[in-house]
Amino acid sequence: MGSLLRAWFRATLVCGLVLTAWLPSGMALAAPPAHGSWIQSASMHTPRDSLTATLLPNGTVLALGGGSDGQAVGSAELFDPTSGTWKQAPKMSDPRVVHTATVLRDGRVLVAGGVSNGGAVLASAVLYDPTTETWHPTGSMQVARSYFTATLLQDGRVLVAGGYNDFVGDLDSAELYDPTTGHWTLTGRMNSPREGQCAVLLPDGNVLVAGGVDENGVLKSAELYDPKTGTWTETSHMSVPRTDFTATLLPSGVILVAGGFTNTNHAVTATTELYYPRFGTWSSTGSMNFPRAFDAAALLGDGSVLVTGGLRAVGQGDVAQSEVYDLGSGRWFTTASLHVPRVQHAATSLPDGRVLVVGGYDGALSGDLASAEVYTPGR
Question: CATH code at 289?
Fold first, then answer.
């Protein structure tokens, strides 16, 4: 079902406590944060949507894979935040889109799964070494996956969960990658198969997986993975079913989820909610000013969250407006707009507090984007 939803999207584009419900008497609404600004940066060499853009230990950003003109991309490039320029990196062995990229403790990047040209779902994985700027083979996953999540655990292993492949459909399986051996081993199955979900490492070392879609529709269920036991436990449900949404770990240890599709008729929501790991509960918070799915979120240096772009609604085009979530008031404030509306793009927090947004798809221009822009928060 989820893959059908994404196929529709590409075809269409040619792709508890309510924190803001009341305020104590005499308390004024929080002032909006200082207005940030976007500056257009140099463009990538290759236009691409559904890419990954990963911050490396040396401060550069590795953008790789994605889709361009209906084909999976094998190329990779490096962004230098100091000069604002891109340079091409060596290509991967396999083109791939809707894959994952995870920085390991030693600085290498594990790239796994995705869809290759011809529509084949991949089990293969490769390692990128930023010190030598070279690719190296590593073990393949036990199950081929696309639209899945990958999470670096506290012990250095990587947990991949869920996703989709053509033989099984939506997946409930999960597996662990051990960087010391380069091997993958299956671990406990999730309680629900799901693709298009979000996954977040919690401060206690467990992993929260929420939402996504299965053959019956969009999910609001959530579950927790315990690396010590290799088992999954259901936790409370979100108030709204969501797929293709964002999930951000706040400095307080609370998780903010925002937006997404709420059903298979492609309804998009502006609602947001908070997950409290200590209590295992969700609480609604202020809604965004714009509904959005296939958007991107980044944590800012002051603990607020920037969301950018996304699909507004069927037939209403892409979102250019950006907004910032203020945890203290539970409200969203609009900030400067992107120069180019974009969906299925990547947002990466830079070491100096700025945010890089790159790639994606612009329905108005009917094409994949190579452009990049950098957000500087207001002071």
Answer: 2.120.10.80
- CA dist 17 and 9 (Å) reads 34
**Helix locations, the chain, DSSP H:** 2-13
Name the one residue in this structure whose structure tokens are 């060499």.
45
What is the count of structural domains for the chain?
Answer: 1
Rounded CA gap, 92 and 76, in Å?
Answer: 7
> Across residues 155-168, what is the average pLDDT?
97
At 308-351, the pLDDT tens digits run: 999 997 666 788 999 999 989 999 999 999 999 999 999 999 99
Question: In whole angstroms, what is the distance from residue 250 CA to residue 327 CA?
Answer: 9
- Alpha carbons 282 and 238: distance in angstroms, whole number: 6
The alpha carbons of the chain give a radius of gyration, in whole angstroms, of 19
DSSP annotation string for 142-200: SS--BS-EEEE-TTS-EEEE--EETTTEE---EEEEETTTTEEEEEPPPSS--BS-EEE
Q: How far apart are CA 344 and CA 244, in angstroms?
A: 9
Domain that holds residue 332: 2-12+36-376
Whether 19 is covered by a domain: the verdict is no
In the numeric block, the tokens 């919690």 are attached to 202
The whole-angstrom separation of Cα 47 and Cα 361 is 9
**How far is 73 from 50, CA to CA, in rounded Å?**
10
For residue 317, what are the CA distances in angstroms to 102, 170, 234, 268?
A: 31, 28, 36, 12
Q: What is the pTM of this model?
A: 0.91
